[in-house]
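Annotated sample (chain length 653).
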Amino acid sequence: MILSDYRFAFDLGTTSIGWAVFELDGGNKRPVRLERLGVRIFEDGRDPQSGDSNAKGRQVPRSLRKGQDRKLVRRKLLLADLEAHEMLPPVGAVRDALFLASPYEIRSRAATQKVSLYEMGRALWHMSKHRGFKSNRKTDAPDDDTGLIKTANKLLRDKLEDGGWPTYGAYLWARLQSGEGVRVRAVGENAEKHYDFYPTRDMLTDEFDAIWQEQSKYHPELTEDLRLRLRDYTIFYQRPLKPVPVGRCTFFPEKDRLPRWHPAAQAFLILQQLSNLRIIRESAEFHVDFEKRQVLFNTLNGGEKLTWTGVKKILGLSSQDKLNLQDGGLKELHYNQVAAVLLGTKRKPGPLAMQWGGYAPELREEILKNLTESESPEVLIDWLTNTLGLEPEAAQAVETVRLPDGHLRFCREVVEALVYGMRTHGYDFTDAVDHAPLLSDADINHSDFRAEKGVETLPRYNELPVLQRMLGNGTNNEDDPHDKRYGKITNPTVHVALGQFRRVMNMLIHEFGKPAEVVIEAARDLNKSPKEKDEVVKLIKANEKRNDRFRDELEAEGLLASGQRVGDRFLRCAFGKSWEKRLRIGVARLRDVRSAWPNCILMRLRSNTSFPLPRPLMTAPPTKRWRFVTKIGAKPTFLRGRRRNVGFLIRAR
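Output written by the structure step:
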C-alpha cells in the first residue's frame, strides 16, 4: 500500500478517542488542510461506581456459585458415608424424629458419654454445616475482620477453659440452656464492632476427635480409616487455592519472572528510581553524583523511609533546589519494603531484627518464600519455631508479616545482572541492559522493527512479537482463546482503549490509505488504577481550593481583576519561584514585609501589560502526554511533558 500525504492525529482517553486527519504538502510535510475529524466513544471496561473491572463483577458471583456447588457435593458425600456405615437411619419417620432433636444437646453428651450411632451421625451432620472459620494468609485482606475474629476466638477459648466445657458444642448447649443465642453475630459498628465468640476450624476438628475418641470405646465399627475419611475428606476438607501462573521474563521467555519480595527485586526498584532522580537548579537538571547515590541506596535498601527533606539533606541541597521526582508528584522514594517489615527501625525493631543478619542468603530466601506461599498460619508458625528456633510469640509476629505482591518483568538472573551494573557503575536501566554480559547477545528492542512498508493494517497489540514478550502471560496454545493464547494487558482500561484505537486506525486507513505520519496523545490517567485516579482528583480539588483562597485575597487587595483566573504559572510569574512560601503568610501582610519585591509585584499586577500567559491556567497537575506541537515556519517536533505555547496544538477535543 502506497503512503498517502496525510497525518493521522489521535487523542487517546479512557472512554473516548478523538481523531483528526490532516492533509500535508508534499515537500515540507506540513499540515495544509484539516480533512476530517471525529470522536469515538466507548466504555472503559470498569464499573462506573466502584471502578472495578467488569470481570470482577462476573468472578465474584461465579466464585459464590462454585462454593455453593462444592458444599452440596460435600454434604451429599457425607450423607452417603453416614448411611453406608449405619450412622443415620433410612429416610422416614425415624430420621425425621432424629432431626427434630437438638443437635447441640447430642454434641454435648457425645463428648463425655455413650450415644447411639444414629445420634452420633446427627451430631456430625450438624457439625458439617457449621465448620468454623479457617484463616487463609493469602486471601485474608488486612482491613477485614481477621483481627476481630482472632480476638473473639481467644476470648472463646478462655471461656471454654474457665467454664470447664470440653468442646465447643458443649459450650453452645450451655448458652441455649441459659437463654443465650448460638449464632455468631457482630455486635456494634465501626470502632465498637466486636464478636462475643467466634469458633475456628481447629476447634471443630478438636470436637470431632473428642467425640470420636469417646464413642469408639462403645462402637467398634468406628475405625481409624473411617475417622480420617470423614474428618479430612468429607466434613472438613478445604480445597487448596489454585496457584496463580507467573509471567515469563521479557528477555528470556523460558524463565519465570522474579517476585517483588526478593531482595534483588527490591534493590532493582530502588536503583531504578535513583537513576531517574535529577536535581533541578536554576532551570537546569543535574545527575546525582555516584557517592551520594550510594548513600541513598544503602539507606533505602535498609528499609528506612526518606522524606524529600531527608533526601535533600543527604544530597546537601539548598531550599531553592528541587528534585524532579518530587515535582512530578511522587510522595517518597521506594524503600526496601521487606526489610522495613522484618527488620523495622532503631526505634521500633521488627520481629527478625536480631536474627536476620545471622541467616544465610539461602535461608533468608526460604523464609520469604514460606511467608508468601503458606496458606495456614498454624503451619507457618510451626515451621518458624521448629526450623528457626523462634519463640512462639516471635513466630506469631513474623506470621503476621505481609510481603509485597506481584512480580517484575524480568527473571532472577536478569535482575541480578542489572542490579550489579546499576549499583557498581551507576548505570541507568538502558545502560545496564547494554553493558550486562548476560544480555549482550539477547538483541532485545522496545519497538517492532519491520521492513519499510510495515503492515497493511494495524494488528491486535498482543499479536506483535515484541509486545508478546513484554506481556509474558500468553500460553502459546493454539486451542486457547485469542487473548489467553497471546496474553493481554491486565489493566482493562488500557486493553479496551488499544482495541478501540486499532479499529479507528484501520477505519481511517481504509478511507484515506496508510498515513505518512501518525501522532498520538495519551491521557495521563489511561493506565492508572481507580485509587491513583482518586488521588489525582483530590490533588485537583486541593489546588482549586488553594487558588480560590489566593484569588479572594488578591481581589481584596485590589491586585487582581474580578474573575481573573489564578494558577501555578500566574503565581510563579507574579511572585517568583518561591510564590507558595511567600503567599503562605497571606497577601494582606505583603505590604508589611520590608523588601523590594512587594512593590514590584504591585506594579506588575496593576500594569497595563499582560502577563506572558498564553492560555488559561489549570489546577490539574502537568499532563504527561506525547503530543505533537508545531510552530509556523518551523520543523514539526515532538514534545513530552508540560503544555508549551510554541504554535498550535493538534487536539481532537
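Annotation: The longest strand covers residues 31-41.
Annotation: Residues 128 and 235 are 5 Å apart (CA to CA).
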